[in-house]
Structures are given as C-alpha cells and as structure tokens.
Amino acid sequence: MKKLLGVALGILTAIGGFVDIGDLVTNAVVGARFGFSLVWVVAVGVIGICLFAEMSGRVAAVSGRATFEIIRERLGPRAGGANLVASFAINLLTLTAEIGGIALALHLASSVEPRLWMPVAALAVWLVLWRVKFSIMENVVGLMGLLLIGFAVALFLLGPDWSQVAREITQPAVPEGEHPAAYWYYAVALFGAAMTPYEVFFFSSGAVEEKWTAKSLGQNRLNVFTGFPLGGLLSVAIAGCAAVVLLPHGIEVSTLSQIVLPVAQAGGTLLLAVVIVGIVAATFGAALETALSSGYTLAQYLGWSWGKFRRPAQAARFHVTMMIALLLAVAILMTSVDPVAVTEFSVVFSAVALPLTYIPILVVANDPDYMGARVNGRVANTLGSVYLGIVLVAALAAIPLMIATGAGS
Amino acid sequence: MTRRIIDARLHLLSRQVLDVDGEPVTTVEDLELRGADGGDVVAGEPAHVAAILSGPVLVTRILGGRPPQSRWERIAWSAVSHLGTVVELDVEASTLDVDWPERWLREHVVRRIPGGQHDPEGES
C-alpha cells in the first residue's frame, strides 16, 4: 500500500495530462472516428512525457529547483515570459474546462443544471488548495481517478475481435471516409495532450512539495514509469470503448453521456457509477493540477515563495494567484461557453509553450552545476533530442492543421 | 576561498534569490553597477555590482529602457552570502524592502481568510 501511495504524484500528474475533460472527449472522438488507428500516437506521447518528466523530477530532486525556475533562468525574461504567458493561458483554459467538466459529470449523476454546479465545484477546488495537505490531496484524488480503469474493464466485457484490434494498432491507416488532415490533426492533439507542459510543472513542483532529495531518484523513476503509462492505458481504453460501440453505428461523440454509453452497455449501472466517480475525480484532479500549475509557473518565474507545504500566509502571492485563476475560470464559464470547446484553443498556446518548456529541461539536466554527477546519460540525451524534434514539428503543424480541418470537424 | 569567474548574464541574471532561511525572495531582475569610487560606471574602468534589482525593472528588461532610480528596488550586494545555482542572502526576507508586495497581501488578504495561518504539514 505504501508503494502504491508513493506513486500518487505520478498518477495524479498523468491523469491531468491524459484523461482530463478535454482529453476524455478527444479520446472518445478519436475512438469513434478512427478506431484503434491512433493508439501508436499515445505510445509515442507516453515515452516522450516519461523522458522529460523523469528529467524534470531528477532536476527538482537533485537541485531543488522546479521546472519554471529553470525555464526563467535559462531563457531569461523575454522567452521565459513568452512561455509564461502561453503556459498560463493553457493552465487557465484547462482549469476552466475542468471546473465545467466537474459540473457536467455531477450533472450526469444528479440532473442538476451544470451552471449551478460550477461555483460549487470551484469552491471545492479552492478549499482543497487552501487547506488540504499535498500528500493527502494526491493520494485521494489520484486513487479515485484510477476508477477510470472501469473503461478498460468495459472494453474487455465488450470483447472486441482482439486480432483485428491488434492489426489496427500495428498497421495504422487512415479509415475510409476520413480526410488525412483530420487524422493528423487528432494525432497532433493526442501527442500534445500527452506532453502538456503543466504535467512537468506540476510534477517537478510536487517533487519539491514532497521534499525529494538526490536519494529520491528511485521514487522519481517509479512515479514516472507507473503514472504515465497508466494514463496512456486509460486514454486508449476510452478510445477503445468508443471504437467498439460507437464507431460501427457511426455515432459522433459530442457529449459526456455518449462517452460513458459503452460502459453502461458493457457493465450496467454499477460499472457506470464507478466510471462517473472516476470522471469526477479525474476532472477534479486535473482542476487541482492546473490551478496549482498557474500558481507554480507565475511564482517560479518571478521568484515568489510558493507551495502547499507552506502556510498560505507564507506564500501569499501564490495563493492569491490561484484564487484569481479560479475566479477567472468561473467567470469564463458563466458566459455559457462549452467547457470542452475551450480546451481546443490551448493547441495554439502549446505551439509556444511546448518547445520553450522542454528545451531548458534538457539543457539543465546536462548542467553539472545543478546536477553534479546526476546529469543525463547518453540514452536520455539522444531520445531527448529526437523528441525535441518531434515536439517542434507537432507544435508547428498544430495551428495550420487546426485551421485546415476546422478543429477536426 | 577560491576565486571563481562569474558571468553576470549567465550566473546572476534571472537566478532565484533565497533569504537566510531558504525562503524565496525574488529573482535577479537586473543588477546595479557602480564605478570604483561609487560613481557612475565609465567604459573601460573597473566596476562592481552594488545591488540586486527587483520589481518594476523586470518590465524594462523585457521592453528596454530603464526606470528612474527612485523606482529601483534594491538588495544591497553586501547581503549576498553565497552564489551557487541560486543567490543566497544572509538576511531575512522580512527585513527587505523588495518583499513588500508579499507582506501587503499577507496582511491585507491572506491572513484575513480563515485558515490563512494554518500549517498544512502540522497535525490537523
């Protein structure tokens, strides 16, 4: 059990990256339109985020510096500031979507109008940020989010033709009737979701919150190599359920209730209830992750004191930043925007934030001033450079693909 | 103590500043340079770092120019105790002028909300 709780940081980080409300919808849309033909992208994304999250966790453990501190230090005020603006926008948009997502999930369970749930959800998020100890927060939310494993159970209960599935995964092809541009738009979206920058902000800052030292490197690896593959697995399971149930009927996913439809069909009310609790926990977890990340990024860029391990009064600007972010999120939601559509805009900001986040991590992970003998090995550097290339291509391709396909529609 | 050559741009600018207790204070937004006699820096003459600058000077580092001297928020260089990957001071943050926004928000906002003094790591 202690081992399990020791990896909660990795699990919560991955949940925010792979199965937050925007990704829940994206995964189901991908499954319903492209079957299993995009699973390879999730695999590529999982390897990439494992690589860079491990580096960011190692830098935080050895040098005590969280990721945005090294971004500011290596990129300086201008490029660092550009990353701050883009990353803060992604955090805020995702936070907005998650607050809306919690409300949508509670609406699914209670049939109370979502807009009534939104301020309640935001207040609940704030109370946890204000009051709850970091380790309790990550354990409870991380473990409850794991209930999303219900999607994997549902997939097995649905019993697709596994040899067919394996063929689709290993020999991916653009399905008939789909435009290649739409296929690649979703490929970039899935890759971007897997590599979302707030994952490394949250993970490295969480390592500081948990007071990791050079002795914690084993724990760092365990967190990384458990959490992110698990996140990828959940993401594939959600797409798989949609591929088995929704794809043959040509159902287009547009609401949360359609995402859980295959679960209800396979496992009945009980499994549905489990999955809904999982969705609430996962969106709640992603809300905490993005709200904290908004505080972490700004505080670390400007050198303020930050962290949930301090009394709120000892990290006043950090806490005020998170309050303002939550208020902004509720204000955006009150305009009746579709919470899920909000996340689509973060693709634009990712184009700036992705390269400007991962380049400094790779540089500092090689700096003996920070790392002593714990600098990157040759494998990490080779893979890291390859992935920087992929990140750059994906970041550059994202906006033209988004415009060309009308955000995939 | 061994002498070490420091590149101010590389090893000082944008580094985190910690106070004597290890609490974050600010980042090094800019540096105040003075000539040998304490006057203005003259090209070709030796100069020394007189203070770490913080606050509004960040805006001018991004956009160019510099704010009037009256707006500079200084941490005297004599307060620096150690230079590593961070700049460490031998004074408490609460004694520094540059820490005023943190103190203002602490006194006027955060402390007034119930639980603002609660220690999350402590028992209950």
Describe the structure.
The complex is a heterodimer of chains A (409) and B (124). Chain A is an all-alpha fold and 409 residues long. Chain A has helices at residues 2-6, 8-18, 21-34, 39-63, 67-110, 114-131, 134-145, 150-158, 162-170, 180-194, 197-209, 217-249, 256-302, 316-333, 339-344, 346-364, 368-371, 378-405. The mean pLDDT of chain A is 92. In chain B, 17% of the residues lie in helices and 26% in strands. Chain B is built from 3 helices and 7 strands, in the order H-E-E-E-E-H-E-E-E-H. The longest helix of chain B has 9 residues, at 100-108. The termini of chain B are far apart. In chain B, 24% of the residues are buried. Chain A binds chain B through residues 63, 65, 69, 72-73, 76-78, 80-81, 130-134, 299, 301-306, 308-314, 316-317, 319-320, 369-370, and chain B through 13-17, 23-27, 29, 54, 58, 61-62, 84-86, 93, 101-103, 105-106, 109-111, 113, 115-121.
Keywords:
A: 409 residues; mainly alpha; 18 helices; 0% strand; B: 124 residues; alpha+beta; SH3 type barrels; 26% strand; PRC-barrel domain containing protein (chain B); membrane (chain A); transmembrane helix (chain A)
Tally of alpha and pi helices of chain A: 18
Assigned CATH class of chain B: Mainly Beta
- State the secondary-structure class of chain B: alpha+beta
- Beta-sheet strand percentage of chain A? under 5%
- Mean pLDDT, all residues of chain A: 92
Largest sheet of chain B: 4 strands, mixed
Strand order of the largest sheet of chain B: 2-1-7-6
Q: Write out the CATH superfamily name of chain B.
A: PRC-barrel domain
Structurally, how many domains make up the residues of chain B?
1
Low-confidence stretches of chain A: none
Number of domains of chain A: 1
CATH architecture of chain A: Up-down Bundle
**CATH topology (level 3) name of chain A:** Amino acid/polyamine transporter I
Number of strands of chain B: 7
